[in-house]
Amino acid sequence: MVTLLRETSLGISYSLNIYRIFLISPTANKEGGCPFVLKAKDDIEDMMTQLSDGHPITHDVKINMFNNYLLETKPKKNQEYLSNPQLASAMKEGTKIVHAAAENNIFTKRFLSGSISTDEYGRYINSLYFIYKYGIMREDLLAQHKENPIIKLAYFPFELTRESSLIKDLEYYYGKDRIAELTDFKNATPAVKAYVKGLKDAAERNPALLIAHSYSRYLGDLSGGQILAKRLKKHVLKRDVINANWDSHRGLEFYHFEHILNHNEFKNLYRQRLDESPVTQYVKDLIVAEAIYSFELNIALFDEIQTLSDSNKLHTTLDLDDVESVDSPIKPKNGLCSNGDWIVGFATGFATFALGLSLYRRISERF
User: Fold this and answer.
1) Which range has highest mean pLDDT (140-154, 165-179, 347-361)?
2) Which ranges does the record mark as transmembrane (predicted)?
3) Does residue 262 fall inside a structural domain?
4) Last residue of a domain, which of 73, 100, 130?
């Protein structure tokens, strides 16, 4: 009984504190705006979550109490469409912090430095296969909701489809015999399953949220992904820029968008479409929040690969020295001859020139 009274009085104390925050908010009398600044909201939420699990005020009641204090902040789902939504710009701005966190992830740093192994990269594209196949690719969720007015504007299955490219890469690193095993969703890792579930949950809540995942993945693949491809060529696949195989996409099909001739022009078009999306402020805010969540899912993916690598639990890839030498013989780039061929060609050319000069002199002497 004493505990109950203590918890109840504690709840009353929290309520009074919430009321004080309401009174002291500097925005309370500004143009009829919401009386709660962001920090005040966080303070209220923190106080609500501090109530013990055994408190007679249930979780649902606590949430309802919180919402009652935030009547002005409750989303108005029937708001008018924004005249200038700038959705892509809002996502770029809203994801800056989590984007930086992704770039500073241990696996990402190792990826950028070119110090990851083929086993780690193989795990990465294996994870991406499930995400694109069962998540945001044309074969699944985006296709199901392609008539959604927001998705429709930025739906480019012909240009962006990645599933077939990922299959080619998996075959390159693991061999065709293992594809069935690697692409069976039963064998997906926990982080991958959580990622796919997050995508499907987003589609159920509001199909427009899928555009946040599409934005973070595709624009990432077309931007930073191209830098990663070069790192892989040089440091992981050991290809030399002076040889013809430098221009080969084998093992890096995922980063090759054969139907996009100019990456920058396409990215600008994609952002423009998003910036013109028919969204309300409520939906716009939801999409930005989902974009942040998308980055968090990717970070979890990176962390999982690093953990699997540290514990030696990655699938073993093929010996790429054999793959490169048998399937992709090294030839000089831009039609240039190898050193041996160059010497032979030079000697042959010089001999031909000498013979021609000798004949010329003999003919000249006769006349």
Assistant:
1) 165-179
2) 342-360
3) yes
4) 73
Q: What confidence score (pLDDT) does residue 140 get?
A: 72
> How open is the CA angle 126-129-132, to the nearest 5 degrees?
155
Q: Is residue 344 in some structural domain?
A: no
Any domain includes 364: no
Rg (CA), the chain: 30
Report the C-alpha gap between 67 and 143 in whole angstroms.
Answer: 36
Question: Which residues lie across from 332 on neighbouring strands?
Answer: 243
Integer Cα distance of 182 and 204 in angstroms:
28
On whether both 117 and 58 belong to a single domain, the answer is: no
What separation in angstroms does the CA of 203 have from each of 126, 150, 200, 250, 292? 23, 13, 5, 34, 16
The secondary structure of 70-113 as a DSSP string is: TGGGS--TTPPPPSS--HHHHHHHHTHHHHHHHHTSHHHHHHHH
Nearest CA to 194 out of 134, 145, 254 is that of 134
Q: Return the higher-pLDDT residue of 74 and 130.
A: 130
- The whole domain housing 252 covers 87-325
Contact 73, 41 (CB under 8 A): yes
Asked if residue 29 and residue 102 are part of one domain, the reply reads: no
Is residue 22 one of the residues assigned to a domain? yes
- Check: CB of residue 331 under 8 Å from CB of residue 240: no
Beta bridge partners of 24: none
Strands (E) located in the chain: none
My answer on whether 63 and 108 are in the same domain is: no
Residue 12: CB atoms within 10 Å: 10
| Residue 189 and residue 307 share a domain | yes
Same structural domain for residues 239 and 274?
yes
| Residue 346: pLDDT over 90 | no
Q: Domain count of the chain?
A: 2
* Pick from 183, 174, 171, 191: nearest CA to 133: 183
